[in-house]
Design a protein that fits this description.
elongated; 74% helix
């Protein structure tokens, strides 16, 4: 099972840069939507949410991170140079995005929408994006190290 996932990951690493950037952007958009859902679950203390128009407006608001992540170069060198500086760039971009997201939530006056979503969603989004970057870099590093092991026998 591990070899199968390793094969797929190696194939993924051989994609061109644009394909990798599109995949990472798609995953980040998915994380943004999941962060919206979890922020609502945490705030409303219920796993069942009525998916009315408020949720879809929140999802539309939540994709405003894309221009900030692109302008700060977070999709240029996806995993090659990930480290502390990369996490700090993600933090800075998420802070800018979170500030605008919070202002959108406050000034949009959407009925029955908890305003704390404007704080919870960017925090959860930062955790998801940072964790995913660190996880992928550690997996790639492990695979590259295992490929360099020479058998003596």
């Amino acid at each position: 099972m591990l070899n199968i996932s390793k094969i797929y990951l190696l194939k993924l690493l051989n994609f061109n840069r644009l394909s990798k950037q599109i995949i990472v952007l798609t995953v980040d958009i998915l994380f943004s939507f999941i962060a919206v859902y979890l922020a609502l679950v945490i705030r409303l203390e219920s796993l069942y949410l009525d998916f009315n128009y408020n949720f879809f407006i929140l999802c539309a608001f939540s994709i405003f991170f894309i221009p900030f992540f692109i302008s700060l170069g977070l999709y240029k060198a996806i995993f090659r140079y990930s480290g502390f500086n990369s996490i700090m760039s993600i933090l800075f971009a998420t802070f800018i995005y979170g500030s605008i997201f919070f202002l959108l939530i406050i000034f949009s006056k959407i009925p029955n929408l908890p305003r704390s979503i404007g704080v919870l969603q960017p925090i959860l989004f930062f955790i998801f994006v940072s964790f995913s970057r660190v996880l992928i870099v550690s997996i790639i590093t492990t695979i590259k190290k295992s490929k360099k092991i020479n058998n003596i026998l």
